[in-house]
């Protein structure tokens, strides 16, 4: 099971520190050309469609335009594996049942058109389309998953889970996994440790998270074994939140260099260093959950955190 770290053009380049990191990037204009600038290019990619970005814009690009951005990004790094995701109509902006239903139908229509784009283009065989399962309850998730399967999708992602509480999220993931098989399922944008436990239990193929960067931007540092988060004592967080004013022992590439850098709130350059440290600890926490499930040794360092030979 793999943890894709969500990445955009202004974030830390995780692969320069951890060459095996799987990366999820959105096909939005600002990210174009950004992967080319990484010293070490990602080998495993998910190219999302950036729908959360596009729905906020006055006008929306066509499916083909987004597809062109995604394929141009592939040429920047030539990964070993890549999943391309079609445009999904975000459901979190929809309030009534009929609006939610229409969003789901629209997403299925996009999925169909997207497969047509794939069938008329010549792409390397390491590139595969990923269908987005959407729904607002078990019945609609099952419906959406069956429709995508009928169209011919073999890889699936489940999204629009942002507004649900974690128990509901887990039920929805389980429901989708029952239809398409957990091995074929990616979970978009899940951040909590309880969800990670549940996903490992269900056996989904992968998930993605932007949490290392988000937390770093909000002046938080992670530590693992056990996993915990602290606010920098210089931040303006509520006084009741756990705070820290100096680094704890850590073997990440940032702390090995100069751990005090984590505690410099801004500019952005320090936020990036903090996000690399946070990624290291979230990856350890995730790896330990997997090891515990498999009855393995939790002291083993994840392959993702090793330098490439
Ligand atoms: Zn560190």
TrEMBL record:
Keyword Transferase: yes
Biological processes annotated in GO: tRNA modification
Gene3D superfamilies: Queuine tRNA-ribosyltransferase-like (3.20.20.105)
Organism: Paenibacillus lautus (Bacillus lautus)
InterPro entries: TGT-like_sf, tRNA_ribo_trans-like
Keywords: Transferase
Keyword Transferase recorded: yes
Protein known as: Queuine tRNA-ribosyltransferase
All copies of domain tRNA-guanine(15) transglycosylase-like, residue ranges: 85-289
Pfam families reported for this sequence: TGT
GO molecular function per UniProt: transferase activity
């Amino acid at each position: 099971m793999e943890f894709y770290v969500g990445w955009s053009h202004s974030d830390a380049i995780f692969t320069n520190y951890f060459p095996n990191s799987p990366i999820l990037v959105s096909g939005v204009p600002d990210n174009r050309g950004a992967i080319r600038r990484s010293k070490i290019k990602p080998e495993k990619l998910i190219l999302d469609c950036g729908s959360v970005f596009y729905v906020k814009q006055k006008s929306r690009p066509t499916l083909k335009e987004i597809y062109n951005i995604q394929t141009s990004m592939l040429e920047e790094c030539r990964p070993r594996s890549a999943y391309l995701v079609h445009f999904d109509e975000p459901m979190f902006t929809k309030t009534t049942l009929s609006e939610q239903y229409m969003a789901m139908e629209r997403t299925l229509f996009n999925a169909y058109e997207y497969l047509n784009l794939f069938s008329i283009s010549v792409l390397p065989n390491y590139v595969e389309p990923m269908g987005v399962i959407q729904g607002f309850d078990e019945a609609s998730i099952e419906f959406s998953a069956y429709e995508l399967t009928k169209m011919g999708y073999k890889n699936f992602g489940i999204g629009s889970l942002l507004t649900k509480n974690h128990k509901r999220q887990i039920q929805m993931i389980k429901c989708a996994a029952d239809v398409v098989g957990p091995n074929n399922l990616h979970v978009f944008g899940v951040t909590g440790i309880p969800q990670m436990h549940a996903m490992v239990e269900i056996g989904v193929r992968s998930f993605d998270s932007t949490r290392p960067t988000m937390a770093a931007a909000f002046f938080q540092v992670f530590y693992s074994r056990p996993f915990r988060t602290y606010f920098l004592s210089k931040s303006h967080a509520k006084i009741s939140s756990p705070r820290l004013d100096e680094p704890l022992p850590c073997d990440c590439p940032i702390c090995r260099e100069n751990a005090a850098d984590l505690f410099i709130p801004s500019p952005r350059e320090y936020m990036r260093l903090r996000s690399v440290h946070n990624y290291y600890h979230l990856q350890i926490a995730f790896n330990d959950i997997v090891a515990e499930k498999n009855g393995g040794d939790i002291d083993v360092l994840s392959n993702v955190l090793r330098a490439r030979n």
